[in-house]
Amino acid sequence: MGGCTPTVKIEPPEKPIVINLNVKIEHEIKIKVDKELDELINNDELF
Predict the structure, then answer these.
(1) How far apart are CA 34 and CA 9, in angstroms?
(2) Which DSSP symbol is given to 36?
(3) Number of C-alpha atoms within 13 angstroms, CB side, residue 24?
(4) By C-alpha distance, which of 24, 46, 27, 29 is closest to 37?
(5) Distance between CA atoms of residues 47 and 39, nearest Å
(6) In this structure, what DSSP letter does residue 15 have?
């Protein structure tokens, strides 16, 4: 009974696969400044 053997074929598609992704990325940056440096930055005479 060797006349019936199942076969599986895997073939690549003719057209490229297109994947559309909508990604929303949010981030938060926290900066900690020393008090002396903060006063220096806020000094109008320097900037």
Answers:
(1) 67
(2) H
(3) 0
(4) 46
(5) 12
(6) S
Under DSSP, the state recorded for 14 is S
Check if the beta carbon of residue 2 is closer than 8 Å to that of residue 10: no
Amino acid at the residue 12: P
Give the pLDDT score at 38: 82
- Give the SS3 label for residue 19: coil
Structure-block tokens of residue 12: 């690549």
- pLDDT tens digit string along 33-47? 888 888 888 888 776
pLDDT in tens, 12-26: 889 999 999 999 999
- Indicate the SS3 state at residue 41: helix
How many residues make up the chain in this entry? 47
